[in-house]
């Protein structure tokens, strides 16, 4: 234990952590926005909108994230669409997790009792007002736990971005392992711990948000 | 319903009939059902309903479950679209509008304008659980009527005082009893100032000991009100006390109607007699 050169590990892992957090935060935002947009389209009163959004969900949910990453970063340039590495990662992860998230949004909206919508209509709210003031705030509470899950999945999913040569946490750990082969267990222990701390941060945030949103409701 | 039927229902002959009925009563009805029917799939739950409600009139609708009385109220609140016929509110078609001289299905804008005349209290309260009692009552005036925050607050406080909940402003609905919830729901609907209000079995979901407080509030409103009321209820004593007219419906038809004394003391039809025999009137 005495001869583990911890101090040699930290600088590289810190560099990797910054990339992981950057990609995770940006793709989480992308995924949340996409979830909301596609999820709302899924409950639209227009059939075409419903069908198109359902196709989006099925396609991007059905592709393995790694294949999607390869497509966005390696294949799209041949079709004239070129993104830098971080953008590629954010697009691929955002689409993949956004597709899962849209199902969360859709089911949470459908789970709000019909009487709420009827009461809002009886008060003469417009369809948009019904959604904004009555349905979404109640659906949001139901969305939080599954969204917490999804965000944790997303953080762990970012470990795939080193395949498109982004030097994230996992990538830096592999570099370290090359330099200190005999230290492999310690390096990977550190890696596990960092990912665990990141996900715990999400769990705690979600739980706090839940408590705040549930104020007054039993 | 196709366009020709629509015009037949609402077009040439209707005005003459309308004028005649107006001459009879002297006032234009606030609500008029003309040949209204409603089907859910193959099941027709209302058949050819004709009914006028005068401004300020309190009409109680009684009848066995499945008689279609709730559907009648829900169509007025625009929660359920009639399958046939016309509903007119304050002289204007509710579910139809004029377009190039023809009556067509109403769009959202027309429905929005018409709904301003109508309010509803539901069997299961349907309070907004994520809002305080006060916010439940102010949000309609704020967002729909566009009234200032101060004035909406003032109106809501007055209204909640009237239903006996002036001390519960900042409480959330989950903390209230069923009777209190229903009184908040009544305040929430009243504060929008409708010309007619539908009370849809508002005590059916309450514990027996809480029914009284809600009925008292409604009686109070009925006494002071120029507002017309459609009271869909299973409370016969209540119907007799409050209503100007009682309508007995069964299997999608209006079987008998008249002043409460006549309906309860001297029922004409066998259906009504057998229905009333199942209630013990005090």
UniProtKB/TrEMBL annotation, chain B:
Principal location listed in the UniProt entry: membrane
* SUPFAM superfamilies recorded: P-loop containing nucleoside triphosphate hydrolases (SSF52540)
Instruction: List where in the cell it is found.
Output: Cell membrane
Q: Give start and end of each ABC transporter domain.
A: 31-276
Stored SMART domains: AAA
Return one GO MF term: ABC-type amino acid transporter activity
Spell out where the chain crosses the membrane.
none
Membrane topology of this protein: Peripheral membrane protein
What name does the UniProt record give this protein?
Answer: Ectoine/hydroxyectoine ABC transporter ATP-binding protein EhuA
